[in-house]
Every structure is written in structure tokens, then in C-alpha cells.
Amino acid sequence: MRRLLLIGIIVAAGAAGIAARQPASGPPQTAELVKVKDNLFVVKGGGGNTAAFVTSKGVVLVDTKLANWGERIMQQVRTVTDKPVTMIINTHTHGDHVGSNEFFPASVEVVAHANTKTNMEKMPAFAGDKAQFLPDRTYTDQLTVGSGAERIELRYFGPGHTNGDTIVVFPELRVAHTGDLFAGLGTPLIDTNNGGSGVAYPDTLKKAAAGITGVDTVIPGHSDVMPWAKFVEFGEFNAAFLSAVQQAVKDGKTPEEAFAGLKLPEKFKEYQIGRGQANVTAIYGELKK
Fold first, then answer.
1. Rounded to whole angstroms, how far apart are CA atoms 60 and 71?
2. Region of 144 on the Ramachandran plot (φ > 0 left; ψ -120 to 50 alpha; else beta)
3. For the chain, what is the mean pLDDT?
4. Which of 40, 90, 170, 276 could hold 36 in an S-S bridge, CB 3.0 to 4.6 Å?
5. How far apart are alpha carbons 33 and 31 in whole angstroms?
6. Which residues form the Metallo-beta-lactamase domain (predicted)?
């Protein structure tokens, strides 16, 4: 009996040791479907928010999350329609938004901004035979696909998160998916390696807020659905951030001093500034070129 007890203790200790060595958990391993408006849904989990727009001809997906999430996306889509995916729109180049492009048949048309295609071509995930999952169609300023109540508008307003950020507008539903140009309420990731710009960011957001009309709901890249007014406010936040950094440069402060002394209007108190130091440094680099 004591021997069995000892074996049990050893096995339990070994299991605990294995558990202790497991890596920290990553993104949630389950997907969740949220209805936004008629025929428009968001699949959450596994990276960026994936929008699923059900049309008469099939399903249009906006972004495909991390690699190996294609089946989980489709498990959620199948709960609302049995129609096939006919188009994928990639809002930008990052792997948590384009990672499962390869899950879908080559017959599915992939659409993105021209700069995004160029950025994706540099990714190992699209090298060699995987190049077939790159965008088939690109645009530079604006592209309309579909018609009538199923019309979708792809809009580009300038560099920000990257140099190819697409805002996807569903005019009849008064909804826009912003990708990571507006990921959520906080300092954005400025990917200078893919053409992102902290200096241009506020102006890009301002142009988008002025150029997109008739929208009342926004699907951010990584956050819950919000009123469009939050996108407009996000532009004001980035403008205030840039202004504070520009003043710090004029005052001769280092990037570290600029971030330490950063003060923004009280209206932005709910904003997370976890990337604040990185963004200050990026803006300093741009201003001093």
C-alpha cells in the first residue's frame, strides 16, 4: 500500500513538473461569434477580429487571424450560413490578420491595398508555393466590391499602423471594420518596418473620420464593437499624443524624458498607453530624420 502511495506521489509530482514547464497560454483557443447587424458577424479569438459578411453569393471575410485558425473561423460561420467563402479582405500585413489565408481554396479571391500585398510578399508565410494565398486584387485609394445592399467599400487614407491599412465599410449596415489602424482604446502599434508612421497617424485618422460618412458602428482590430464616435475620438487621442511629443522635442527632452512627462487631456484617461514609450521613440526618429 505504501509503495502504491509513493508511486502516486511521484506521478503527481511529475505531472506538476510537466505542468509547470508548459508555456504561458497564448490567444484563446476557442472562437466566439458576435452578431453586429443583419448578415454581419464578428468572429473573435485567435488574433484580430474577423468579420463575416453573408451575401447572396457567399461569405466575405475580413481578415483570417493567426495561422491554423481557418477551421475555427468556419465553425462559427457555419452556425449562421452554409454558404462558402468567396472573398477575403486583408486589412493589413500582420500574421494575426492574414495567418489563415492558406486555409481557404485558391479560388477564394483575396483583396488588399497594394502596399499590403508588397508587405505580405516579404513574409516567410507567403514564400514559395504559399504565394498563391497573397492578394489577387489590389487598390490604391478606394475600391468598391458588390452592389446595392451588399456593397463593400475599401478605403485608404494614408500611413498609420502600416502603410497599407484598409478600412472596410459596409454602407448599408453603417458599419466599418478598421483593422489595426484602430485596434482599440490605447496607443497603437506603429510598424515602421512596414511603412507605419506616428507622425502621419493623426492626419490619416482625421482624413478617415471626415471621408467616411453614414457609419455609426466600428469593428476595431482587437476590441469589442464600439460606436463610430470612438474612432473619431481615437484620432483626437493620437493628435494630442503627437502634439505632446513634438513639444518635448522642441524642449530638448530625450524620448525617455518625453514619455515620463507625457500629459494628455483627462478625456483620454481610459486609454491604455502600454506602447507609449515605443511610440514616442518612433516619432522622435521620424522628426529627426
1. 15
2. beta
3. 91
4. 40
5. 7
6. 47-222
AA letter at 255:
P
Strands of the sheet containing 85-89, edge to edge, are: 32-37, 40-44, 50-54, 59-62, 85-89, 109-113, 137-139
Q: How far is CA 77 from the centre of its chain?
A: 19
Question: So what's the pLDDT on residue 28?
Answer: 52
Which residues in 13-36 are b (16+ Cβ under 10 Å) and which e? eeeeeeeeeeeeeeeeeebebeeb
Distance CA 180, CA 232 (A): 15
* Amino acid in the structure at residue 157: F
Non-local (6+) Cβ contacts of 259 within 8 A are 276, 277, 280
Residue 80 near residue 74 (C-beta atoms within 8 A): no
Percent of the chain with pLDDT strictly greater than 70: 90
Residue pLDDT, tens place only, 81-125? 999 999 999 999 999 999 999 999 999 999 999 999 999 999 999
Q: Which pLDDT does position 289 carry in this prediction? A: 81
Q: What is the 3-state secondary structure (H, E, C) of 100-157?
A: CHHHCCCCCEEEEEHHHHHHHCCCHHHCHHHHHHCCCEEECCEEEECCHHHCEEEECC
> What number of other Cβ atoms are within 10 A of residue 190's Cβ?
25
